[in-house]
Amino acid sequence: MRSVPDVFNRWFALRGWSIHPHQFAMLERADDPATLLIAPTGGGKTLAGFLPTLVDLAQGGHDGLHTLYISPLKALAADIRRNLTTPITEMDLPIRVEDRTGDTPASRKRRQRADPPHILLTTPESLALLTSYEDAPRIFKGLRRVVVDEIHALAESKRGDQLMLALARLQTLCPDLRRVGLSATVEDPGAIARLLARHPDPCAILEADPGPEPDISMLETDQAPPWAGGGAAYAIPAVLEQVKAHTTTLIFHNTRAQAELFFHNLWLANEDALPIGIHHGSLDRQQRERVEGAMQRGELRAIVCTGSLDLGIDWGDVDLVIQIGAPKNVKRLVQRIGRANHRYNAPSKALLVPANRFEIVECRAALQAVRDHDLDGEPRGPGPRDVLCQHILITACAGPFEADALYAEVTSAGAYADLSRADFDACLEFCATGGYALRAYDQWQRLKQMPDGRWHLRDPRSARLIRMNIGTIQDTDTLKVRMRRTRGGKPLGEIEEGFAASLTPGDTFLIGGQIVRFESLREMVVEVSRDKGRTPKIATFMGTKFATSTQLSDRILSMLAQDDWPELPTHARDWLHLQRDLSSLPEKGRLLIESFPHDGREHVCIYGFAGRNAQQTLGLLVTKRMEEMGLAPLGFVSTDYATLIWGLEPMTDPAPIFAPDALRDGLEQWLAGNALMKRTFRASATIAGLIQRNTPQARKTGRQATFSSDILYDTLVKYDPGHLLLDITRQEAMRGLIDFGRIEQMLSRVGGRIDLLRLARVTPFAAPLFLEAGRTPVEGAAQERLLAEETAKLMQLAGLDREGLQSRA
Amino acid sequence: MTREERSMNGYDFTLAGQRLVALGSGALYWPSKALICVSDLHLGKSERRARRGEAPLPPYETRDTLTRLEADLNKTGATTVICLGDSFDDDAAARGLSEDDKLWIIALQAGRRWVWIEGNHDPGPVELGGAHLAELPLPPLVFRHIAQPGHSGEVSGHYHPKATIRARGRAITRPAFLIDGDKVVMPAYGTYTGGLHSHNAALAGLMRSEALAVMTGPMPHPVPMPR
């Protein structure tokens, strides 16, 4: 065990601090191969991670890199550098700390490669890039420790998988490397420990004192929430009262769209002109930094935000967190609550604001789950193969490699421990030749085998392309938004390309809290002007929609099984009783389907409780089956709990529609032409290196007129249906936006116990679904008909219908 | 009008007094000459990309493009074929075609007059059969790769035009023919081709104000050219 040098004790004493028990424990375990520390925010977690490093380096005499620190956020790396610099300077330690991210100037990056600092703070992508250089062995020579911060966040994404593969590489270069993970509270620390450690090394889990229980409740409002929707505009007066009563409040939303709308409405009601800012991932970086700066200086009373503030810099003055809309996921809720009151040993205070009636039930279930410390999470499954393909290409950039050695190295990463040699070889084959059934242009393979059996890049030019495309973060295609006639002026932020394409000049929408009018799309920049209106015509752009977790859905179903609900407000309680009296309440082991006529059409409401994405997929698959059976479905809408379908004929026999095999067959067929599937394919094909997002030409011209990845998808489906990337895409479809895995879970939970109730009219539970936005028309011939109608209308408007044209010609 | 012509899905229009049909496939048909024109096939694109050290794309685009071309030839019974330039992604790609693909092209050429127009990607002559020309005047029309301002009766390609229209909140984008009283700019026919929006300055400046965009697809739809 290392003892704490006197200089450290004196420095702590000077500040009136004492070393926490978990910080001592980390020092004691400094020589363990891997350690995972679970501690609440503000618990001195980062210092605990760095203490062994600082103690080691305090003696001096270490040459080159000693410790790598990896965080998911660039901003966090910069912040940690400032935080470490203070004690290092004040104790006058002989330690050099630098950060290296995408924002670091090229000159400093070059110097860092030649002369690495003792402590390098970086991100998974920058680390992957470092490992791709031929001189990686020299850069990392002498590396002793690696600290992975916010590992709970990284563990949920492909960024974490990429990082762990990079650590496997580093471990080969530096066999004595010790790994430390720092995590917020999670449901399954063992799973994260397995990811962190070299397989099959053990990994000790240290849990710091979690501090006092959070003070969390529902926000009391005069008005009941509306029946449907997600805006929570009804709660604005009550939220403003809370903002006034606290120093600094974070107001979390589940989507950027909702954050924009709420912020807009908040300002309309903000008669005292309280300083309130907005922060989300689509805003321009400068705008975000300005808000962060104002926050750190304590100038803001509240920030309306999204997941972009789930992680990051500690803001000591936050004394209240408000969650607008059902939290959807208990673990994220707990982590968000942790953003309040970073002073250790003070309880975090949080309020939940349901956005509609059903969310009252969900919020209540979430409160109970927080009190029971029952966190949720879906096991992530085996390491994704698209990330492995990128890793193989990165490895090839660094120099020739042996397939056997790389396979051994890759399977030492926890997520890839069970990777079969056949799967590895298929990924290697994909990187080398494309892995197509048709063997073409073999002389132009990307990777070739040398006479000694090692693999290398055929064309050294490809190393540059591969390096330019390192990373697994998939930003959807976005376009910058700029005020018109401010050439070179500051961008306001970004919107999705699909949303931009749907805008017509004159349309108004919200961005960064202001209403703007769409003027034109010029050289891939959306030009807008200020609009004086108070109501945007188009609500706002899309954003990720989280699905309610399996565990939370189960809790809701358990709640519905109660005889009565004294814990709920009267209006919600009456609503549940009414549903039980007029129809039935959904149960865990059964699938409730209601069938009723309304407004001249037949309706079916399916209470699957499978989460928004899976319910949406279910809607697509069920309507497809209904179409085949001649039930003439017209459209559907989905929430986290149910899917409502309308059409011309009633559903009378659900069994053949919900047979798992039938749904799975439907999925296979439907996936072939589906836009979501194409999006999933694009993401995986980009990560695996088939599609190059960045090319030297594209950098020069801003954007290359390249063909769409949809064409590649269609081509593979048609000519090479067994291709690796289609296999990866199908696997991805079980999660995420398609989430077929949740449908399968639901079907196995139900086990064929389907209750179809024929009712005379709309039921209390189904009624709010009629008010939901986001209706999906049933596709098919519909698109061609729409196009025909629309083009005919346009031609007529322009006087360009057939007669008009003939007379001109 | 023959039965075959009626069964074709196409948009009929007149250029320099000649009746032409813009087919949903992206090919242009000239019934009185039994002539079909396709532009920007970009055959061998995946081979060229791989040669330059980029990712190996699925090597099926030549097969797919030729399959569609063969279907159009059978449907129209065309006896003259004009490939309007950029038929190959580069000269080496033309040489690099597989033997099967070369034989396939030769089979399509059998019994037909076949003209390769030079493009910026494929300026040199190809080893395959057929005439190789910088441009082809067939009065009152002229076929060339890149449009020349001020000419009329001109059929050209090069720009890969596409158009977007909004139908009930949904944006639909398709490769498109751009047509005005003087000229037609053809969509790219090749499978691995992207497009340039009709509202791009290069196209907006080229086409007269009354220009139409004919969107390709199962049924070609004319719209005032989106600018």
Automatic annotation (TrEMBL), chain A:
Keywords in alphabetical order: ATP-binding, DNA damage, DNA repair, DNA-binding, Helicase, Hydrolase, Isomerase, Nucleotide-binding
Similarity section: Belongs to the Lhr helicase family. Lhr-Core subfamily.
Pfam family, one: Helicase_C
Alphabetical list of Gene3D superfamilies matching this protein: P-loop containing nucleotide triphosphate hydrolases
Protein known as: ATP-dependent helicase Lhr and Lhr-like helicase
Helicase C-terminal domain segment(s): 235-378
Residue intervals of the Helicase ATP-binding domain: 26-204
Upper taxonomic lineage: Bacteria, Pseudomonadati, Pseudomonadota, Alphaproteobacteria, Rhodobacterales
One GO molecular-function entry: DNA binding
TrEMBL record, chain B:
Gene Ontology molecular function: hydrolase activity
Transmembrane segments: none
Alphabetized SUPFAM superfamilies for the sequence: Metallo-dependent phosphatases (SSF56300)
Domain Calcineurin-like phosphoesterase: 36-128
Top-level taxonomic group: Bacteria
Record organism: Roseovarius litoreus
Xref: InterPro entries: Calcineurin-like_PHP, Metallo-depent_PP-like, PdeM-like, Pesterase_MJ0037-like
The protein's name in its UniProt record: Putative phosphoesterase
